[in-house]
From TrEMBL:
Pathway: Carbohydrate degradation; pentose phosphate pathway; D-ribulose 5-phosphate from D-glucose 6-phosphate (oxidative stage): step 1/3. Residues 12-190 form the Glucose-6-phosphate dehydrogenase NAD-binding domain. SUPFAM superfamilies: Glyceraldehyde-3-phosphate dehydrogenase-like, C-terminal domain (SSF55347), NAD(P)-binding Rossmann-fold domains (SSF51735). Belongs to the glucose-6-phosphate dehydrogenase family. Keywords: Carbohydrate metabolism, Glucose metabolism, NADP, Oxidoreductase. Its EC number is 1.1.1.49. It catalyses: D-glucose 6-phosphate + NADP(+) = 6-phospho-D-glucono-1,5-lactone + NADPH + H(+). GO terms for cellular component: cytosol. GO terms for molecular function: glucose-6-phosphate dehydrogenase activity; NADP binding. This is Glucose-6-phosphate 1-dehydrogenase.
Amino acid sequence: MIQSETPASLIMIFGATGDLAKRKLYPSLYHLFRKGKLAEHFAVIGVARRPWTNEILREHVKDSVLTSIKDAENVEEFVSHFYYKPHDVSDSQSYIQLKNLANELDQKYGLDGNRIFYLAMAPEFFGTIAEHLKIDGLTDTEGFHRLVIEKPFGHDLESAIELNKRIRNVFSENDIYRIDHYLGKEMVQNIEVIRFANAIFEPLWNNRFISNIQITSSEMLGVEERGGYYETSGALRDMVQNHMLQMVALLAMEPPIRLTPKEIRSEKVKVLGALRTIEHDEIPNYFVRGQYGSGEINGEKVIGYRDEQNVNKESNTDTYVAGKLMIDNFRWAGVPFYIRTGKRMTAKSTKIVIQFKDIPMNLYYKSEKDLDPNLLVIHIQPEEGITLHLNAKDTGQMMETTPVKLNFSNNHTPGLNTPEAYEKLLFDCLRGDATNFTHWDEVALSWSFVDKISHYWESKKAEFPNYSAGTMGPKEADELLKKEGFSWWPVTDLDVKDC
Ligand SMILES: NC(=O)C1=CN([C@@H]2O[C@H](COP(=O)(O)OP(=O)(O)OC[C@H]3O[C@@H](n4cnc5c(N)ncnc54)[C@H](OP(=O)(O)O)[C@@H]3O)[C@@H](O)[C@H]2O)C=CC1
Ligand SMILES: O=C1O[C@H](COP(=O)(O)O)[C@@H](O)[C@H](O)[C@H]1O
């Protein structure tokens, strides 16, 4: 049975003064509190370097909640559960003080020794913090101890293995919750339900009926203040290694025998393991990289990537990636999964388009127009919904066909307010449900796939910039599909208009 309330817990947020905590974690915790999903028995300790007090943190949390939730109520009561501890991540004394405060709050709120350690900090600190939590006794209580880790989980396979070793010395795999916030998105979670709860899709979900699958995640924003981080990452590590490959795995996996984290993960792992390995010189046939130059977004001039703050003037960093993935198994042999993601593109949109094969013959061959292929579009964001593109008879005397759409839109359902990804993920973690977090095996396979591409790219100088801000990426990305008789479905034309 699904628990509707979380167990008593102490949540310790490392990086409590940072951007992620303010924009995502506090509003999400507040939503859980307001919906009655957060147990009355909860306390939060915010941890960071700056010398704040409980009062300053509470004001900060209040501000974060009121900025993002207009009709927030009982905010004073919510923030009264928050405490702050200035901290030095490499000093044992600091952890001992933290432990004393945690033990005190355990008693005060009746938290049963349950603890969640949320590391909302730069990844270089993850290993050190995990080790200190154990050495300095913060995990010495009776209850559960869970470690929530933000991305990026390593920079490549080697660094990810190293990091994993360090945290696994302290926490078991079952207690490690590696966040991929796309797995908390309503429509990403819906992929599984659309596939496995509808008799009409699953029989067609294979290489006999599907011609190709396209996943686009485009952003209008540039790198903003994250130039320093992005220079070491690029779109391949920032988006493909995690979010894009996770969506591929959910679309391609076999039905799990049970809806348990273990069974679902095991099916996803099989997909990632079946990704065709692309060797060095073949990479240009499968992957295209791009970097934005100056251009226009919403009628405003914007600078190119190389002129952004903390970015090298001759940077070779990819801000765009398009690729063809082949899954070499019985179900998917021969079906390309095209992915593309980038910054400073025409629209903010994440969509999945499943294109079905053409019917064997067109009875309406006398018509001027070709029949449009059937498409199933899963709208991840900003609209949330699904659209099925069919052909129907055009009204009138003639037997002409016209494309029609069957739409379901979450955004247009009255009273339905989709929770933020972080709200769902925090709720799951508090309940001990790791389904929508990435298992180490998935992380390792994703890195080994991506490493081949990044090694190749790092060995070659790119002709950057190669797309203007405000466009859908370099022309090579169109050619990638054109040579196989396909083209990218334009994301904005596929929007859900009504339901
Ligand atoms: N922001 C976002 O939208 C997203 C962030 N992430 C990930 O979340 C993590 C946090 O990102 P973000 O909040 O943006 O980062 P910020 O730079 O905004 O915040 C970093 C936090 O770490 C604290 N900190 C830094 N150094 C130390 C130290 N030596 N000891 C103790 N605390 C320290 C800072 O506090 P102080 O300065 O007070 O010490 C601050 O609270 C990163 O791993 C990032 O990749 C992932 C997805 C999205
Ligand atoms: O993880 C990341 O995701 C965001 C895009 O997330 P979305 O929910 O807005 O689609 C991206 O901007 C960022 O660079 C990356 O680190």
